Amino acid sequence: NLVCLMTFRKLLNLYIPFTLLLILGSAFVLYMNQELSRGEKDAIQLKKETAHQQAIQQLNKSVDKFKLLISGIRAYVVESDELPDPYELQSFTNEVLDRINFEDSLVISYLNKSHVFIYSFTRNTVNENDLTGVNVSSIRDKEEIRFLENAMKDQELHFNYPINLVEGWLGIPVVFGVENEGISIGYIAAIVNVGTILDAIYESNINKEFVYKFRTEQGHSFDRNAIYDGSVIYNENEDKLSYVHFDTKDELSLIHI
Known about the structure:
By secondary structure, the chain is of the alpha+beta class. Helices cover about 30% and strands about 25% of the residues. It contains four helices and ten strands, in the order ββααββαββββαββ. It has helices at about 40-80, 85-100, 140-150, 195-200; strands at about 5-10, 25-30, 105-110, 115-120, 160, 165, 170-180, 185-195, 210-215, 220. The strands form two sheets. Strands 3, 4, 5, 6, 7 and 8 form a six-stranded antiparallel sheet that branches. A four-stranded antiparallel sheet has the order 1-2-9-10, with helices on one face. β9 (about 210-215) and β10 (about 220) form a beta hairpin. α1 crosses α2 and α1 runs antiparallel to α4 (about 195-200). About 30% of the residues are buried.
């Protein structure tokens, strides 16, 4: 029997649920027949649509915890009389992490108005990568700096596209401005691991016949380990479940939802 490869593309409008990112998802399924009847095509199409909706639900569940965490950190910083030091903010963050059972990789940094790192911490370390005094413009492009300039103007949450981190994983940045007596003094940037968010799809009971392709609104593909936008990739591992490891040349249908 010949293997008929059917390709399916959909827009996942995942402002999940708070304007996180726009993902273009693709699902591919192998079917061991040369010719498909109309009924068989309809059945496969229904399976694709079901898998698509289940993927969105799983991503939303995973992101909900992230939203709760970042909202809590923002409230703690905004309501404090003065900006917490790294150990105070780390202690509070860990309390929230334990409370919501959040185990994803996370980096939180405070940078001043000139985009210079003042401190940075993870769950277990403070200033591990010795970024204190480093200007973020030396490791980020002009577009990302414009995003940060904009984000520090208020204390609302601002979400950017995934970025490759020097820590060796792919992160989604969330930024909010920090003020002292109404005057901007910089911003807090929290970055969560994209891989563990996307794991929600792969570890669920979603139909195992499908693989998924993720792409930003700008057209840059990414997987659980890296985004392929021309920036430096610090993660040397490949995502074995990435669509690039599957033969997806033939297309059966193109569906936009």
